[in-house]
Structures are given as C-alpha cells and as structure tokens.
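Two entries, shown back to back:
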Amino acid sequence: MQQHVAWRWGLGAAPKRSIAFEDSATGISSARAAGLYVAVEPSLPGAILDHDWLGTSLAAPELLDWARELG
C-alpha cells in the first residue's frame, strides 16, 4: 500500500481519479487499501481476482473507454 500511496501523492492524484494496473492478488490488495480503481490483466490463467476492469491486454481499446468513464 505504501508504494501506491507514495506514487499517488507524488503525482498529486486523488484516489478516485487513479488506476492501479495489477496482475496479482497482493498488488490488488495494496491498490484497494490506497483507494484506487483496479485494472487487471491476470498473469495466471484462470485466476479469480478482485477488479474494476478485467482484460486480456492493457492495449485493449475498451480499457481506455472504461478509464474515460471514471472522469
């Protein structure tokens, strides 16, 4: 969590205007604790992970569409 908070504060970004890009439960837990949205591209096939957006590629056009909707 400390890493997510430090990056967010360093950038001056509010938690609800920030997205963590994660691929593991540990990273997702840290991002959630920092109050961030979570975009997930699982590194292990079949893994069930908490997420706000789930995709197979961070280059997916729908990721940008989703992020724009966050405001």
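entry 2 starts here
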Amino acid sequence: MWHELIICTRNRPNDLGECLESVAAQSCRPDRVVIVDSSDTDATRGVVEEFEKRSGIAVRYARAIPRKTVQMNMALDFIGPSTGIVHFTDDDVVLDREYLAEMLAAFEAHPHCGGVGGRIANLPERRANGVVRWFRRAFLLDSVRQGALLHSGVNTMCRTGARPYRVDWLSGCSMSYRRSAIAGLRFDETRARAGHGEDVDFSARVAAGSALIWTPHASLEHRVSPINRDDELLARRRAVRSQWRLARIGVSPVNQPAVLYAVVGDTLMLLAMTVLFRSRTHLRQAIANMAGVVEAVKGVSV
C-alpha cells in the first residue's frame, strides 16, 4: 500500500534532522515524505535536501506561512489519489525502527478503522493520585478511560495497554489515516501559531465517521522541543479557548456548559493549592484559566 509521511516544521533544523534519520532507518520506509516548512532561515531546507540525497526517499518540500494548520492543509493538498495511508508526525519526534510497519499492520488488522495512533514511549507519569484524582474526574478533567475525549473538551492520553483498542482522538505526533477517511476534511485554520488542539479537533471529526485505533506496537519518542513553544500560562489560556472552540463547532461530545464546569473545577483546585502552599504559581495558573474563559466567550481565536 502506498503510504506517505507528513511533517510540518518551523525553526527546528536539528530536531528535524534527528526525526528524518529515524524515518530513513524504518524497516518499512514511506513512499514519500512531505515536508512543509515555515522557518525563518534556509537551514531546514538544507537538512531536507541532505536527507533526500542520503536516504533516497522521495521528498516534496514546500514553504508556507508560520501557522501549523495552514501547513497541514497545504501538505494534504500534495497527497495524490493513489495514496492509501497518510501518516503525520512532529519534527521533534524519533520513530522506533518498526513504527511505520506496525502502523500499517494495525490498518490491516482493523480494516474498518479510519485512523491509527501509536504509543508515545516517553510520556511523563501521572502525578494526580487519591483525592486529587477523584476530584479531577468529578470535574471532567480526567477519566479512567484512556484515549477519551470528554464532554469538557479535555482529552486523556493513552499510556498503557498490551493490545490495540478504540479511542476518541489521536495525538498529532502519532496519527495516521486512510486517505478515504479524511477526504474533504481540513485542519481548522483559525487555530494560530502551532495550532493548539488541532490534532484533537481533526481526529475527533474523523472519529465521527470511522473508528480510531491506538496500538502499543508502534512506538516513538516525542522529545518536545522548547523551540516555538507557548509559555505555560499562555498554553492554559489557549487550551480553554481550544476546548470552547470544539464545543462551538459541534465536535462531539464536547459542549460549552461542560467546558465551563471543568474550568471552574480546575480553578478551584488551583486556588486551594494557592492557599495551601502559598504559591503564586498556582494563583497565576488560576487567573490564566479565567482569562481563557473570557477570551473564549469574546471569540478570541485559538
């Protein structure tokens, strides 16, 4: 089956170089790699040209404005009708040698699924335990189910499992789709910069029409480059706006009352920790939550 890999990048030539090395080392190489670059210099172009020369893998390289969702849509426009599977990964990811082979195997094992996600091997451990964990679940900030998209717009990660299972969404650093399942779908270009939440939005819309599967057999390391990252407080505000956006455009099962309910619960917990630990950090986080609500209601874009 013809399969292509899409990578969108900005100002991370070193990270991208390591990612592409892992692509070249795949036991089942992609038939083509599509790279859409919004970097400020030509350093990334040089990395891509060297990769194409050394690996022999076909590359489609293009430049775009610095907005990830625009880059993703441009990449989709390059995918031809003969392509069976479209893989997406991030430029700061290193793939296990069997990653693409296992993703294709998952599609073969689940012929009716529209998308497959793999295991992020270096996810941090859960920190919430006991009362805090139950509090978070009560306020729709967490779930016992992995890979869930909650009514609040909060999405839970897949951390464990010996066998593939069905999920509600796929992580942007590890999501692959049948081309037929994403025909006509576009990434939401109102999401600015790195497109906060674009993976949840896109994959949940795919899930409305076909099943999504998570497989533990396709693994990767997401190194989370510090380049082009929002600071923690801005990320909080954008997360709230993203969840509100999901509800506003009708991404199931997200709804606005549940989004507000979850933000209130998280803010109450942060205020309690502000008092308990005399922590200005938690207070700033609580304020960022409420600022995100105000911005979302005013219609500020993600």
